[in-house]
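Q: I'm writing a short methods note and want an example of a predicted protein-small molecule complex. Could you take the sequence and the SMILES for magnesium ion and return the bound structure as tokens? Please keep the output block clean; save any remarks for afterwards.
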Amino acid sequence: MQSQQAAASPPFHYGTVSIAGRPNVGKSTLLNILVDFKLSAVSPKPKTTRHKILGVLTGETYQVAFLDTPGLPYRRHDELDRRLLSSTLEALHEADLVVMVVEPKPPGEIEHRLIGELRRETRAAILAINKIDLVKKPELLPVMEAYARLYPFLEIVPISAVQQDGVDTLLDLIVRHLPEGEPLFSPDDVTDRPERFLAAELIREQVFNAYAQEVPYAVAVEIDVFQEQSEEHGGKDYISAILYVEKDSQ
Ligand SMILES: Nc1nc2c(ncn2[C@@H]2O[C@H](COP(=O)(O)OP(=O)(O)OP(=O)(O)O)[C@@H](O)[C@H]2O)c(=O)[nH]1
Ligand SMILES: [Mg+2]
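A: Understood, no commentary inside the block.
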């Protein structure tokens, strides 16, 4: 009797899912919505994300380890681009499944390059066409067709991350394509990054939102004080950070 019950319980699914795409398509916005936590910095400027960021989502029958990645740069021209690119490629290799995020536009150079990477390793991939709130429905069909011709995506899902439209459907489809496996993280884990790192990212995000042009790309944030429930500050958490820039003029 007992063994019959065990056989009837649904299998558990676990997998790593890399979120990849050109800069500024909304990868970090999507990660934050999926894990329902403000984990990854979001800004209207490209190249906001600098490192792979892990976001864990645990459900009744699944656990997904999402990896937000830096947007794939146009060409490898500077040191920052090289670093961003290698971080993204690394995340692609680690993934059981790739969610490629694109704009509702025909595929461009970056998309062709990313699909080339998927093809090289015959990666299982789902295409998420984001920002559909910015276009009319009839404009979507030719975009979906163009991508379907380029790669055998497991699914093509139109979404709007900011309006949370289609995101539940996307999650259902992701889970459906995950391998069976045991969870790696505790159900309460959202990330493997320490709070100091998350605090530094939130500050860096504000710099991206507040400054134009070169300053966001020149800034590095270092948390020098992180006191939880600081007595000195009325029991509130106290965080102090140093912002480094490259030049005096900044
Ligand atoms: N209209 C609209 N804007 C969106 C949507 N999703 C994200 N955005 C906006 O697009 C901009 C970029 O979002 P991010 O999430 O930082 O994009 P990213 O792909 O992580 O960018 P990088 O980290 O630079 O590669 C932000 O201003 C978001 O608010 C969407 O569904 N619709
Ligand atoms: Mg990002």
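A: Remarks, as requested: Helices lie at 2-8, 27-35, 79-94, 109-120, 137-150, 167-176, 195-210, 215-218. The pocket of guanosine-5'-triphosphate (ligand 1) is lined by residues 23-29, 42-44, 46-49, 70-71, 130-131, 133-134, 160-162 (CB under 6 Å).
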